[in-house]
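As the work plan foresaw, our protein records have gained a structure token line. A representative record is set out beneath this paragraph:
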Amino acid sequence: MAHLRSKRWFGPRDVGGLIHRACLKSLGISDDVLGNRPVIGICNPWSEVVNCNLHFRAMAESVKRGVLQAGGLPLQFPTISLGENLMKPTAMLYRNLMAMDVEESIRSYPFDAVVLLAGCDKTIPAELMGAASAEVPAIMVTGGPAEAGVFRGRQLAAGTDLWHYTDDLRAGRMTEQEYQQLEAAMIPTTGHCNEMGTASTMSVIVECLGMSLPGSAAIPAVDGRRHAAAEASGRRAVALALEDLRPSHILTPEAFENAITILMALGGSTNAVVHLLALAGRVGVDLKLERFREISNRTPVLVNTRPSGDHLFEDFYHAGGVPALLKEIQPLLQLGARTVAGVTLGDQIDQKGTSNRNVIAPLTSPLYPQGAITVLHGTLAPDGAIIKRSAASPALLRHRGNAVVFENFDDMASRFDDPGLDVDSDSVLILKNAGPKGGPGMPEWGQLPIPKKLLKKGVTDIVRVSDARMSGTAFGTVVLHVAPEAAIGGPLGAIRDGDPIILDVEAGRIDVDIPAAELRRRVGSQTSPVPKYRRGYGALYLDRVMQANVGCDFDFLRKQAGESAENEPLGLFTGWIGGW
């Protein structure tokens, strides 16, 4: 065990070692344990303001049990908790802050390995990013989906169905009393969103990346097997410490190819694109936005879950989960990629396949012939944009319409239901200044509401374009993540009411049909909006956040060329601890 990091804290018989050991002896930990067993950190974002994570105290106890079974010493530590529903303006604003918190906690404490508990959607990438940068052996345990509520005799998808019923309310097809009944039924238990939203998507991606145990991604939050997986992850964390199997050994170019492939086959969330780009930047993998388009074009959608299909994430689990889906897309995968389980991804395939063809279709008979998400470029998005074509209206995937422009969220909120709004079913709604700097934080505003005057006419979808994100539970013909964003002078900021917008998903284009010289003139005359923050973390965010096409991470957190992994804190092992 000479290589264990913790021995540098607890092994020396000097004043530093004395202080380190004495601090843990206050917990009742005996001397023969300290320095002689792998120390396993348990990163816990438990919080009463994030319902996705409410069960994490009990899950942490299950992890501890596994660590102890394998002969390790478990030590739990907290991190900030991100919840998209209650955090304003968006949890995405704080993803990088959480990643920094996790990274520095792992690096500065005496952990030989860490178990990452993660639930609500930004929590998963934040913890992965932090652990990847800390470069200490790590394994993730995701929280699992909430049980489905039941409304009008039908199981609810918490987000997807909410958007449908909200449109019904605004169109007068639903009463306020019925809407209140929906509220009471919508989220009956702890756990993350129960359709293929961002949390579900990221849970699957973590397993396919090789950073969690096989078969664990989709276990429901309230299922006892979720705790059994947490216990097994605790045991495996001890082995990771002894093997010194680090995130850089797992998060390879091949792993990212696999993650993008399964994202496309899932009908997964658009948010996963930003998170994968950011994570790749942390480990020095040169992942470009265009690679998502290339993999999407060869990977059909096989998983029939909302919002691209009919079922819930729990149904995906009962149909065989990730191991069963891997069997279907096996020809498209890099099967030799390593995983935290100590085997390759190919070894984790369930050769029996799925038990339910209504949920997981065969590769030869997919739900959609191409992947869920594709990439667009053009005069409106020189650095790229994305669209979830599996949740869009086929008739709108090639479309020309005049722009109806909203300068920012407040402008949209004040006007989209105005009876005098000059909009029809062919219009293209444009939302500016909702990107990483403009939002700030790139909030989930991209699924602009359909104006009430159109809803009452039976219109259910129109083309919408913005530099924002949208919820992974959402749907519609929505172009997102336009880069560069309007707030830094991107062409989106130069669009005016009535400009012809051309969307051609098959060609991978999103354009504005005005003379190039006029567009250049408008772009050059734009002025930057007043910064939303002038102090604190918000000011740091605005100063250093990158654009959506590279993952919205901070520029100083990406791994630089030639940079070596360093997981040891500096200047703490000199035999004397100053300031004590």
About this structure: The longest helix spans residues 224-243. The chain has a mean pLDDT of 95. The CA atoms of residues 149 and 185 lie 5 Å apart. The chain has three domains: 37-147+189-348, 149-188, 375-524.
